[in-house]
Amino acid sequence: MTKEQKTKYVFVVGGVMSGVGKGVAAASIGKILQSRGFNVTSVKIDPYVNIDAGTMNPIEHGEVFVLNDGTECDQDLGNYERFLNKDLSRVNYMTTGSVYLSVIERERSLKYQGKCVEVVPHIPIEVIDRINLAVKKDNADIITIEVGGTVGEYQNILFLEAIRMLKLKKPKSVVLVLVSYLPIQGKGGELKTKPTQYAVRTLNSTGLQPDIIIARSAVDIDDKRRDKIATNCGVEKKDIISAPDVDNIYKIPLNFERDKISGRILEKFSIKPQKKDMKDFRRFISSVNKIEKEMRIGIVGKYFGTGNFMLSDSYISVIEAIKHSAYALKRKPIIEWVDAENFKNLGRFDGIIVPGGFGGRGIDGKIRAINYVRKHNIPFIGLCYGMQLAVVEFARSVARLDNANSTEIDKTTPHPVINILPSQKEKIENSNYGGTMRLGAYPAVLKKGTVAQRAYGTTHISERHRHRYEVNPEYIECLEANGMIFSGMSPDKRLMEIMELPVKTHPFFIGTQFHPEFKSRPQKAHPIFLKFMEASLINKKRVTN
Ligand code: GLN
Fold first, then answer.
1. Which residues line ligand 1 (CB under 6 A)?
2. Which residue lies with its CA nearest to atom 5 of ligand 1?
3. How far is ligand 1, taken at its centre, from the CA of residue 347, in Å?
4. Cα of 23 to ligand 1 centre, how many Å?
5. Which residues contact 105 (CB under 8 A, 6 or more apart)?
6. How far apart are CA 182 and CA 243, in angstroms?
7. Per-residue confidence of the chain (545 residues) as pLDDT tens digits?
8. What's the 384 CA to ligand 1 centre distance in angstroms?
């Protein structure tokens, strides 16, 4: 049998409503199956017509995650990478737009040999081909495929059709998991199963029956409700997996395993379960559970508000990276959002992060925040835009370059310390925005003895990028003369990758042109975040004493 014939497919679809953690559920299933000795990979299908997530506003869609190969994708790919502890690539992500684009391009080059190209079957066939491409590239025994959106909407119907077609061809190799939401009516009220029953009926109308139902709710599902779902949805009671709210997403794989989800999936595939090895992960979770001491980190950003609600999804990888490094230091991070347009009292934080961003809104506030942390010795990381603004702040306040700015904010600034790359300028002038930034992994060389180099413990690194602007080489000499250190550069020394202030002037002040947060993993905190948190801990003691 070829690899593809042996491969098992676990599809994850959502019922009732979005935003109940389908991505983390898919990632958790992957993690558990991986712990059983299988090579697992994951695919996310986004129903958007956008070719990728690169042009989406973070408030609309949450963080844009970036892979090593420069793919700009849904934040769930970040969950997969973090849970599976492995790097993914372009083949692990597709959107409606990208699927249609390939089909249309193929049609234009006569690859369908004169056939009438139709929505069905050609779109689902392309979807299945792409899933198999990921299987092949990642040499997977099992692949999890998360279909974005919720059953019952128009947008993902062709993806459900792809599941139906694949299941028809390989009935023993496809398992369908429905992650469904069970609301609780009123205070102290009971779990309601009816919306889930409707979701299953809707799924049935597309020719699909779930094999497993993950019951997402505020609390554990009880026996009575299990019975109800089993009877009304035609799913065995033991195939209903309880998924209550958790205070830490890394507990979810362990929660799923209480109901033996991996055993159930493997039985359906008729694979003899291999021995499970979750010892290391369990140890990690139990050490996290024991943490009592806290530390307080502020994130100064602008992608928080939507209507009357606050969204933290826009910075999900930054939050996770903070958690990973805090856990490594046995601290529970209290993360507070600082609205760049309206804040005071930054002194209460042990450390402050100014994350990435685009455009002019909230810039003055971010620069004011950076000025404060620099002067008050508060440990600081500037991520991408945050690094660029740290350079602007330093240029203005220390190097006395009045009105210094990034040309992203002020095109007529007398001191464009941050400027657009010429190649990028042309792209913007031609409105060529999609997938054209400096994207993905690039190498950098670190200066020996600097804070960055000591943090990494090496001089050669590779990190993920997503930006159009850079430190202007014309100002490097001036900035260095005033005390700024460029501790990381592109190998040709033309692009400044990391800036820092010397430890004798500030306990921890680092800006990275790249996004270290994308590479942080739960049991392997990113070195920059780790050192930042260490410095924040020392600062905390200083503040408390
Ligand atoms: N807006 C800045 C640029 O394009 C920074 C981007 C970012 O923070 N990801 O260079």
1. 356-358, 384-385, 408, 466-469
2. 385
3. 27
4. 26
5. none
6. 10
7. 555 568 999 999 999 888 889 999 999 999 999 999 999 999 999 999 999 999 888 777 788 999 999 999 999 999 999 999 999 999 999 999 999 999 999 999 999 998 999 999 999 999 999 999 999 999 999 999 999 999 999 999 999 999 999 999 999 999 999 999 999 988 778 899 999 999 999 999 999 999 999 999 999 999 999 999 999 999 999 999 999 999 899 999 999 999 999 999 999 999 987 777 788 888 999 999 999 999 999 999 876 655 544 456 788 999 999 999 999 999 999 999 888 877 888 999 999 999 999 888 889 999 999 999 999 999 999 999 999 999 999 999 999 999 999 999 999 999 999 999 888 888 888 888 888 889 999 999 999 999 999 999 999 999 999 999 999 999 999 999 999 999 999 999 999 999 999 999 999 999 999 999 999 999 999 999 999 999 999 987 766 65
8. 6
Residues 6+ apart with CB under 8 A from 316: 62, 63, 75, 78
Distance CA 288, CA 271 (A): 33
Atom of ligand 1 lying closest to residue 466 CA: 9
Q: How far is ligand 1, taken at its centre, from the CA of residue 511, in Å?
A: 13
Q: How far apart are CA 140 and CA 33, in angstroms?
A: 11
Query: What is the fold of 8-286?
Result: Rossmann fold (3.40.50)
Preceding omega of 121 cis (within 30 degrees of 0)? yes
Give the neighbor-by-neighbor strand order of the sheet with 438-446: 332-339, 294-301, 351-354, 380-383, 509-512, 496-500, 485-489, 438-446, 460-467
Of 314, 363, 406, 468, best ligand 1 pocket probe by most atoms within 8 Å of the beta carbon? 468
Q: In the CATH hierarchy, which fold is given to the domain comprising 291-544? A: Rossmann fold (3.40.50)
Residues with active-site annotation: 384, 515, 517
- Please state the pTM of the whole predicted model: 0.94
> Ligand 1, from 408, 433, 517: best to mutate by most atoms within 8 Å of Cβ?
408
CATH 3.40.50.300 in the chain: give the residue spans.
8-286
Residue span(s) of the chain under CATH 3.40.50.880 come to 291-544
Q: Whose CA is nearest to atom 7 of ligand 1?
A: 356
